[in-house]
Design brief:
single chain, alpha+beta, FAD/NAD(P)-binding domain, Flavocytochrome C3, Chain A, domain 1, 2 domains, four-stranded antiparallel beta sheet, 15 helices, 19 strands, 34% helix, 18% strand, binds flavin-adenine dinucleotide
Length: 488
């Protein structure tokens, strides 16, 4: 049997590519090393688009040219401008395409104060989108071979001719195919690759939320077949997490693992210091990429989120100053702050102390450094201006009234964002190529395995939801380009 298109990976990108091909009457197949479809795409909460019908319904107007220019500026023009443009331009159509295939949208809420409303949230979150596409794939008769791990690309006469994979019993199987879309979602679980290609450092290696079996197989297969490399260093850093590296989540969080109250408290723009007790960041900068990046440069990459009893009262009586996405909107009252901290206190990850001296004893922070940081910060609060990090005045609350509260925040990331060099049609560029035209015929890459969208970091300031959007849009584009190739 020879397939027209083989998707390596049944996450967002792989599903989108296979469905695109099958809807055009082509024989597609999907391989995934796990037992279920969805990959990391099930964990995402929303995807980027501009000028979608959902935004129009909500009266949100976002100029695609402005978004494009902002993204290029943010990436210092080191991203692939044609690829960026292709994703932005297709994004609204993809929102509708997914809706027609089972996705139900909630709307485009701002993820944090003043965030751009590009983040399309769905009723069943990321899982709702992959479920819709999985149902569509089944309806179209696309076989999905689970527990099947792709290992190598078959190249004949300089063109793609299929994939070699291991099945669940370790047997080697050859899948013959005229085109292959690599959509295997990065290398977050491959410690050697994380060490070699990223600057995440040893301590963060196990902090990849929602990632299972991402060992960079697809990227290595493409490189071995002569693909050029791009963007392998980029990781999608996130907010500080209340979980420690040993407790990292690889499936949807259970209620005991994910307490929205403590997670939301940790996110509040209180007074943040590093492991020494030194303030290091403008706490009113809400881009989680920026928070993650700043944390990554601190000792042990951890932070302590501190507040006093007045702030405890504010959260209980007036509510959160900053919401937690779809879980707890701004203004949500935390019924009992000490109770929300209880589970973390038992694990020595949160503390309530009558004095700063006690707090330093428990946390290991340097008393002199912490006192100096607090005095400086309280002075800024009194004067109404943060002369150090220009924090938004609205969020500046002094830290004076005992007891004092502290929560330890750990570094997180949600995946790697590059590896294979592609052009704006998601064709894989040859290593030897000096142009974007010299491609490996029949080979495409989509989603987290493909580079070119970023410079050194994900952008959670202008294009919120871009990585999930990239998975679906690049998956569709890869499928469409494969159709053009098959038609030749
Ligand atoms: C907790 C969390 C929250 C997130 N929230 C957001 C958000 O709100 N907005 C946003 O834009 N992005 C978000 N992201 C990022 C986003 O989910 C990813 O960028 C996107 O899902 C990547 O899609 P993908 O198809 O490339 O990979 P995946 O969805 O991970 O799919 C890859 C698939 O390939 C399979 N695979 C791996 N190796 C092989 C192999 N050798 N052979 C066969 N199959 C293989 C895997 O099992 C997996 O099923 C979040 C990520 C996480 C983890």
């Amino acid at each position: 049997m020879e397939y027209d298109l083989i998707s390596v990976g049944a996450g967002g990108a792989g599903l989108a590519a296979a469905v695109t091909a099958a809807e055009a009457g082509k024989k597609a197949i999907i391989l995934d090393r796990l037992r279920v479809t969805g990959g990391a795409s099930v964990f995402a909460k929303g995807l980027f688009a501009c000028q979608s019908h959902i935004q129009k319904q909500e009266g949100v107007e976002i100029d695609p040219d402005k978004i494009f220019l902002q993204h290029m500026e943010y990436t210092h023009y080191l991203s692939n401008a044609r690829l960026v443009r292709a994703i932005i331009d297709k994004s609204a159509d993809t929102i509708k395409w997914l809706e027609d295939r089972g996705t139900v949208y909630r709307g485009v809420p701002p993820l944090y104060p003043d965030a751009p409303r590009t983040w399309h949230t769905t009723k069943q979150e990321g899982k709702g989108i992959t479920k819709g596409l999985t149902n569509k794939a089944k309806e179209l008769g696309i076989p999905i071979h689970f527990r099947t791990r792709a290992r190598k690309l078959i190249i004949e006469d300089g063109k793609i001719a299929g994939v070699i994979a291991d099945d669940k019993d370790g047997n080697t199987i050859q899948y013959r195919g005229k085109t292959v879309v690599i959509a295997s979602g990065g290398f977050a679980n491959n410690e050697d690759m994380m060490r070699k290609y990223t600057d995440s450092g040893e301590p963060t290696i196990q902090m990849a939320f929602g990632q299972v079996g991402k060992e960079g197989d697809g990227i290595k297969m493409a490189w071995e077949a002569g693909a050029a490399e791009e963007g392998t260093h980029v990781i999608q850093r996130g907010l500080a997490g209340v979980l420690k590296k040993k407790e990292v989540l690889t499936e949807a969080p259970t209620k005991s693992q994910f307490d929205k109250h403590i997670t939301a408290i940790l996110k509040q723009p209180t007074f943040w210091v590093n492991a020494n007790g030194e303030r290091f960041f403008n706490e009113s900068e809400f881009s989680f990429a920026h928070i993650g990046n700043a944390m990554s440069k601190q000792p042990d990459q951890v932070l302590f989120n501190m507040f006093d009893d007045d702030y405890r009262k504010l959260m209980e009586e007036e509510g959160l100053q900053v919401g937690l996405g779809v879980f707890a909107p701004t203004g949500t009252k935390v019924p009992d702050v000490p109770k929300a901290l209880q589970a973390s206190m038992e694990k020595d990850e949160a503390w309530i102390c009558d004095t700063i001296e006690q707090l330093c004893e428990k946390t290991g922070m340097n008393l002199e450094v912490l006192k100096a940081s607090m005095d400086e910060y309280n002075g800024f609060c009194d004067k109404g201006r943060d002369a150090l990090f220009a924090k938004n005045q609205k969020f500046m609350k002094p830290i004076r009234k005992a007891p004092f509260y502290a929560i330890k925040g750990h570094p997180t990331h949600v995946g790697t964002l590059g590896g294979i060099k592609i052009n704006h049609k998601c064709e894989v560029i040859k290593k030897s190529s000096k142009t974007f035209l010299d491609v490996i015929p029949g080979l495409y890459a989509a989603g987290n395995v493909a580079g070119g969208m970023y410079n050194d970091t994900y952008d959670a300031s202008h294009t919120l939801g871009l990585t999930l959007a990239f998975a679906y849009n690049s998956g569709r584009i890869a499928g469409e380009t494969a159709l053009e190739y098959l038609g030749k």
